[in-house]
Design goal:
The protein is built from 42 helices and 33 strands. The chain has an 8-stranded antiparallel beta sheet, with no helix packed on it. A 5-stranded mixed beta sheet has the order 3-4-5-6-7. Strands 24-25-26-27-28 form a 5-stranded antiparallel beta sheet. Strand 8 (644-647) and strand 9 (652-655) form a beta hairpin.
Length: 1302
């Protein structure tokens, strides 16, 4: 059975078998030695036995082993000498035995070897008697004639130092006695036939001549020769291949075979000739040093970057390339085939001048895919030769810069990433010269990159593609050079510190977006994913819990046009994704989502062509490495119907994004803050002054002047398109320009939005820092979509614009209504507004509509379908309006792009101008839109489509809730009525079944109540982000509250609900707050409250009691007008009590309770049950139970909630669980605003709510951080007794609030 598993054939003489096919033999058998000499030897596994001198038991004099022993197994075979030394030594031993008396000794042999020679010498030099005692032990072993004794004395000069030196005084006299004793003992051993004495020395001149004369053989062994060195290296490499440290296993020919092949280099001899060259360079090293070199080479070189992406996994990767990863591997196959078919286009130029004459990032990008291909497909020698030549040329250049942009480090970074990655992947295939050359090139560039980081602007920025790309290049370079350059630790730590700040900022961007747009943001995310992977792999730092990462998939998915054909064209975008969308998706799936959605979407977009020669292959290697086949490919289960998606930070709305059906209509709209809502707030509010230096820490140069811009793709085909990557001109975006403007720059006298006119968005101008726009409304009702935005903040103040409001209403999949509302300051000198519409495909012409005799634009698309744009002013004519067409070509990336632009010019009228545009495709029977009614607060118009009348009403005074109610009959933003029926309200939600809410035509006054630390401040922060409300906090230093003689703090502390003593005065006080004229409120306010009242002149008042003192007085509000509504925020009592205990708020609660007790104005027996319990506990002088008191406090408040719910009714009272707002923020807040308050839930409030509940930066009043996926922190704080106390008191209250008992 054994022989069947031996791979080697029959052989004559001794040989060792080490490779077996049987798994059992592989696991349990190290080797099998086959010999033609009859033997019966047992390989002993016992370790050495230490022999100690009796005079000093702590000194080990010798060790002895039973032979043969595992410790020496294979050692004889591993010895390599130039001459036949081993054979001569064996012959000597055999001859000695032959000349001795023959004896049949036992095969159980013993070797004695001197150890710790210096210690032994120090001991035995005290007296020659100690030498005699050591030899006596040897004598005891020799006395057994059946045992062969081999005595090995290492460093024998320690015991046999020349007596001549001792006599001259250079050695102590005791040494003479030691040498004499050794010589005497050796002479005595000579008469025994079963003893063999072997000695070694590196200092032969120090040995006494009498000892040297007694030696039968004196063999000098010098440093190995080149052939011996070759054989030593060869044996080491074979062993490393055998154990899998060197992979794949390759043949290393011996010198005889190389000689037969005349040392000609080819694929079969290349590695062996390299080893021969290394052997020449190793002459002079000892055998011991030579055997250390493979270990040191692996530690210092092979482990530099190898494993940055994968390690010891190459065989399985190759297997996956043919199975689970075949589709991804096929991308690399096609890429390399294209490279090999057109080498002159893809191989870097042979000279520096040509390389530096153009933007050259593609060379570094493409090298990654080529190197990975060579790893997966090692048999393709032509590809490997191409990769080697590729790297050789890259390493030969003096610089990787682009000559025309020497201050831009991006080309250098791409080349550095490419070279470092290829160096990692292809290291085993590189010659020593190549390794040294490429390593030095990488280290030199990395060092220079570090110096640039300290002085270049990108070293100051965050969240920008240049920053991430340059930092990751420096990081990878630092990983490569870390072993040989101690500065590399500093380089890596600097990058980690910088990008940690970036990730902290990204955590605030709760919609997963990037301001540079989808396509260009893949530049940033490509580098970010590399960093996240490498920092975890090499430093064990897990940064994958970032909330931005968790949402980034939806940013990528919901921005796709239907059928996954391309991405929305906002900011510096393209019709495809610049860098590795597939790589990003599989990374998110493997490390963040773990649900198969990323793999599924990656498979959908993988077939989409990327025409860019410089970027299309740059992330194939990471896509292959990160793809986790175990997750499968799971479709995003959201149905096939188009969805409305709001990116709250980015300021973008999409409809139909990510729809699987390519014939789904798509609509997008943009109105946002510079660099997004979160970063804009960070800068303007100076949130992190120690890390962020205003706008100097950012670079939103890839943004566009595109506020209120939109795109429209009816049935998934392009109609109105965006500007994509190109110069920052307003007219290339579908926005408005005005003239004549006193500050016009690039197209005087007309001027567009702030930041235009340059190659990059002019974000550093003082005006740009203040630029802003906002999504006002984004609502979908019954397949109708209404979106609107205000962009007045995107235009210069000198233009004296009061409002630039644009509303879009998608009436059918083919028909879009656009209404522009321009409100001028009477002093404005603007005379005209120009609306621009860009169309990238088809033939555009101006024609006269035969039905209306009005001018229209007609686009015959490439699919032969015809689309139209018709327009008219508020007088229902085209008087004062003119249209023109122009074609425009502009540079983009490395080519040019062409667009066709429709320019509709309209004469402005004071103070308000309104224009309606109807865009439609296909065979729709359309009548021109008719303005039916209008004034300063709104406009109504009719549209007839295929015989159906659409009545549209839009509240253009969108910042005033009362004006919206006045115009629409509700506080939303628009109303649509179809042929007199089917009344659709955009902005508020209809009540759920069985609910009887108040009328829609009332604007509420709101009171937010809560116990301290129960979450009321979260609701207030959310509400305060909408322009519809201004929050007044009580108590507050920013408000001089209305003072009535009879009203004081004692009244609010009084727990009596209906005190006749206080009721009239409290009612008057609340009326002063809620219904006072705006000027009166302005007189009360100062600080931030005064600023809010001034900037929101039409906002309604929200009152919030910070510490809950007013809770018992809420009954007073029921006596006021019907539009006063109460939101009472509750929290699980276990969570609230635990937080109060943990964060030391107990004493404050105790103070409130005692002040309340002292303010009672009614009989005690009339107070609620749990309040009386609380009073009794608080009245104790000592022994108050904090858990019990806090629980009574919570229960007393919930008793009030139950009573007030009945008093107010559901249309005026809402009990809101903070846990619902944290776990289901969108649904909970939408119901709060749309159904209870009958008010729109603005995108600004939604965004802030998501920051509060997802970024882990917000703390409740108790100091507790909100963690949305850990809402039972009390489990870690309260013991079983405390839980029983709380649940025992609150048991009857928990159920009605929806809390469970555990």
């Amino acid at each position: 059975m054994l022989m069947k598993n031996i791979r080697q054939g029959l052989a004559f003489g001794d040989f060792v078998i080490t490779e077996f096919s049987d798994p059992i033999l592989q696991e349990h058998v190290v080797s099998v030695t086959v010999s033609d000499i009859p033997k019966d030897l047992q390989l002993h596994e016992d370790g050495p036995v230490l022999e100690e001198l009796e005079e000093d038991a702590n000194v080990s004099a010798a060790s002895h082993w039973l032979l043969p022993n595992v410790e020496f197994h294979g050692m004889w075979e591993s010895l390599v000498y130039d001459s036949d030394i081993k054979h001569r030594l064996l012959n000597y031993a055999e001859t000695t035995m032959l000349f001795s008396d023959r004896t049949s000794w036992n095969r159980e042999n013993i070797t004695v070897k001197s150890s710790s020679t210096e210690a032994v010498y120090q001991a035995i030099r005290k007296s020659g008697k100690l030498v005699q005692k050591m030899f006596q032990k040897i004598q005891e072993l020799i006395d057994d004639p059946g045992t062969l004794i081999c005595v090995l004395i290492d460093e024998v000069e320690s015991l046999t130092a020349a007596r001549k030196s001792a006599m001259s005084g250079s050695e102590p006299s005791d040494a003479i006695r030691v040498v004499n004793s050794v010589l005497t003992q050796i002479d005595q051993l000579k008469r025994y036939p079963n003893v063999l004495i072997l000695t070694t020395s590196n200092i032969t001149g120090a040995i006494d001549l009498a000892f040297v004369d007694r030696a039968d053989i004196k063999q000098y062994i010098g440093p190995p020769s080149t052939p011996a060195i070759f054989r030593i290296y060869q044996s080491c490499i074979k062993e490393l291949m055998k154990v899998g440290i060197i992979t794949p296993t390759q043949q290393i020919l011996d010198l005889r075979a190389l000689e037969v092949m005349r040392f000609v280099e080819n694929d079969a001899t290349k590695l062996s000739l390299w080893l021969r060259e290394i052997s020449w360079k190793s002459e002079g090293f000892s055998g011991r040093s030579l055997r250390k070199i493979p270990f040191l080479a692996h530690a210092l070189y092979a482990m530099l970057l190898q494993g940055a992406y994968f390690y010891k996994d190459i065989p399985s990767m190759r297997e996956r390339a043919a199975t689970t990863h075949k589709a991804i591997a096929q991308q690399m196959v096609e890429a390399v085939e294209m490279m090999k078919s057109d080498i002159s286009s893809y191989l870097p130029p042979s000279d520096q001048a040509n390389f530096s004459s153009a933007w050259n990032e593609g060379y570094g990008n493409n090298l990654c895919a080529l190197a990975m291909y060579c790893v997966l497909f090692p048999d393709d020698k032509s590809a490997l030769e191409l990769a080697h030549e590729y790297m050789e040329r890259m390493a030969t250049y003096q610089s990787w810069e682009y000559r025309s942009m020497l201050n831009d480090e991006m080309p250098i970074s791409h080349s550095l990433v490419g070279m470092a990655t290829a160096f990692d992947f292809l290291y085993p295939t590189l010659s020593p010269k190549q390794r040294e050359k490429y390593f030095m090139r990488i280290r030199k560039t990395t060092s220079r990159h570090f110096e640039r980081l300290k002085r270049a602007t990108w070293g100051l920025y965050h969240i920008q593609n240049h920053v991430l790309n340059n930092c990751v290049a420096l990081f990878i370079g630092a990983l490569v050079t870390n072993v040989h350059d101690k500065r590399a630790d500093l380089w890596a730590q600097l990058v980690m510190g910088h990008l940690n700040v970036t990730l902290g900022l990204l955590n605030l961007i709760v919609d997963g977006s990037l301001d540079e747009g989808v396509a260009y943001s893949t530049y940033t995310s490509r580098s970010l994913t590399m960093f996240l992977y490498l920092v975890q792999k090499h430093f064990g730092t897990n940064l994958l819990g970032n909330y931005w990462l968790k949402q980034h998939f939806w940013f990528l998915y919901r921005s796709m046009l239907p059928g996954y054909q391309e991405t929305v064209g906002i900011a510096d975008s393209n019709t495809h994704w610049f860098y590795g969308l597939g790589s990003m998706l599989v990374f998110l799936d493997k490390y963040v989502m773990r649900n198969g959605n990323g793999n599924w979407l990656a498979a959908r977009v993988r077939p989409r062509p990327n025409p860019s020669k410089s970027q299309r292959w740059s992330t194939y290697h990471t896509e292959f490495i990160w793809y986790d086949e175990s997750l499968g490919e799971k479709v995003v289960e959201e149905g096939s119907e188009p969805r409305l998606t709001c990116f709250s930070d980015w300021g973008v709305v999409t409809y139909g994004g990510g729809a699987p059906d390519a014939t789904t209509s798509f609509l997008s709209f943009k109105a946002g803050m510079l660099h997004g809502r979160a970063i804009s707030a960070v800068v303007k509010e100076q949130l992190f002054p120690n890390q962020i230096n205003g706008w100097d820490s950012f670079n939103p140069g890839h943004e566009h002047p595109d506020q209120n811009s939109f795109t429209f793709w009816p049935r998934g085909r392009p109609f109105i398109t965006e500007a994509y990557y190109g110069p920052k001109f307003s007219f290339l975006n579908n926005v408005l320009m005005f003239g004549p403007s006193p500050t016009a720059k690039c197209f005087p006298p007309y001027e567009g939005q702030i930041g235009e006119c340059y190659r990059w968005f002019d974000w550093q101008s003082p005006e740009a820092a203040l630029t802003s726009a906002d999504i006002v409304a984004a609502h979908e009702e019954e397949n109708f979509v209404f979106i609107s935005g205000e962009a007045v903040g995107a235009y210069r103040a000198e233009m004296l614009l009061k409002s630039v409001y644009r509303a879009l209403l998608l009436l059918t999949p083919d028909v879009l209504l656009v209404v522009d509302h321009i409100h001028l300051n009477p002093a404005s000198g603007l005379k005209a507004v120009n609306a621009f519409f860009n169309m990238r495909e088809g033939a555009l012409a101006l024609e006269e509509n035969l039905k209306s005799f009005n001018q229209e634009a007609v686009l015959e698309r490439n699919d032969s379908e015809v689309c139209h744009i018709v327009w008219r002013g508020s007088d229902n004519t085209q008087t004062g309006m003119s249209a023109s067409l122009m074609g425009y070509e502009y540079p983009c990336e490395f080519n040019t792009r062409r667009t066709q632009v429709l320019n509709v010019s309209v004469d402005l009228t004071l103070p308000i101008t309104r224009v309606a545009y109807l865009l439609f495709c296909g065979s729709v029977d359309v009548r021109m839109p008719v303005f039916r009614q209008m004034d300063e607060i709104g406009v109504s118009l009719d549209v007839h489509l295929d015989g159906v009348k659409y009545d549209v009403s839009i509240a253009t005074a969108h910042t005033s809730p009362r004006s919206r109610v006045q115009w629409l009959g509700h506080a939303g933003f628009a109303t649509l009525t179809l042929s007199g029926a089917n009344h659709i309200k955009f902005g508020i939600k209809p009540p759920e079944h069985g609910q009887n809410y108040m009328s829609d035509d009332v604007v509420p006054r709101i009171f937010v109540a809560s116990m301290i630390g129960a979450g009321g401040d979260v609701v207030i922060k959310m509400i305060n982000k909408t322009s519809d409300f201004v929050v007044l906090r009580y108590p507050s230093k920013e408000l001089a509250w209305p003072i009535r003689q009879q009203v004081n703090m004692k009244m609010f502390n009084d727990p009596c609900l209906y005190s006749e003593q206080h009721l009239p005065n409290l009612t008057s006080w609340f009326k002063d707050v809620y219904f006072a004229p705006r000027q009166t409120l302005l007189g009360y306010a100062k600080g931030s409250v005064l600023q809010a009242l001034n900037t929101r002149p039409h906002a309604e008042v929200v009152l919030y009691c910070i510490d809950g003192r007013m809770n018992s007085k809420l009954a007073v509000l029921s006596q006021l007008q019907q539009n006063v509504k109460v939101i009472y925020v509750v929290r699980d009592p276990r969570s609230w009590v635990a937080s109060a205990i943990k964060h030391g708020i107990y004493n404050k609660i105790l103070k409130i309770v005692r002040e309340s007790v002292m303010s009672i104005s009614c009989p005690i027996e009339t107070l609620p049950h749990w309040y009386r319990k609380m009073r009794d506990e608080a009245a104790k002088d000592t022994g108050i139970d904090p858990i019990l008191l806090l629980t009574y406090y919570w229960a007393a408040n919930m008793e009030l909630v139950q009573e007030f719910e009945q008093l107010f009714g559901k249309h005026r009272w809402l009990t809101l669980r903070i846990e619902d707002l944290v776990s289901k923020p969108d649904a909970t807040a939408s119901a709060l605003f749309g159904q209870f308050l009958k008010m729109p839930f603005p995108l600004s409030s939604y965004h802030h709510l998501m920051q509060l509940t997802r970024s882990q930066l917000h703390k409740l009043m108790l100091g507790e951080v909100i963690v949305h996926d850990k809402q039972e922190p009390w489990r870690d704080i309260l013991d079983e007794g405390a839980l029983k106390t709380i649940e025992g008191v609150t048991r009857t209250l928990l159920g009605p609030l929806g809390y469970s008992i555990f």
